[in-house]
Amino acid sequence: MASLLDRVGTLISANLNWMVTQALKANSMAVLDEYIRKVEDNLEALEDAAATVGGEAKTLRRKFDEYDAKAKELDGNIDLFLREGKESLAVAAQSRFNTMQRLAVSYKEQAEAQEVEFQKLLEAKLKLEAKLTEVKQERVELEAMLELAKSKELTHKVVVGVAGVTTAEAGVGDIRDAIQKRLDKAAAQSQMDANRLDNQMSEVLEEDLLQRQLAERKKKLGM
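Above: the chain sequence. Below: its structure as tokens.
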């Protein structure tokens, strides 16, 4: 029983802040989950031990009451035998009284010891249950913190990714502008080429007109 109370005492005095710190460092609930498992196992053992010790205390207390009642009855009988002058019966009754009284005292001491042990187990059980409640609440809060941290990390990655895409889009925009400039230049060149062709055509047509005009003049002149 002492070893059980020692284990329970260790669990009750466990440093919760240390466990939380370890869980945060490892980014895992494993430390708290292991502690909770141990507490639950020992709570079960405590309940069983308390029930056993409590039952034994009741049995011993009942035995004490039984032998104490017999001792009190014999005590009265001894006085009766003495008053009636029955010395031999008084001696026998005294001997039996001594035995009953000794047994009654023994059972009383054992009952009281078991009752003390029973109370220790109940107190340990209450303290361990309180510690378990505290740790479970801490676990809920810690899990929420870790989930929030993961969410923020994910958000950070997304932001970094978006920043990268934005930079890439800026680069694509520059390329698009450069291509557009090339297209504009090509279009301008085409327009210039077209104008040059038009000019060449106009020049050819104008020269042809001049040649026809000169031919008409030569015809009139009989040349």
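The helical segments are 2-12, 16-26, 30-83, 87-220.
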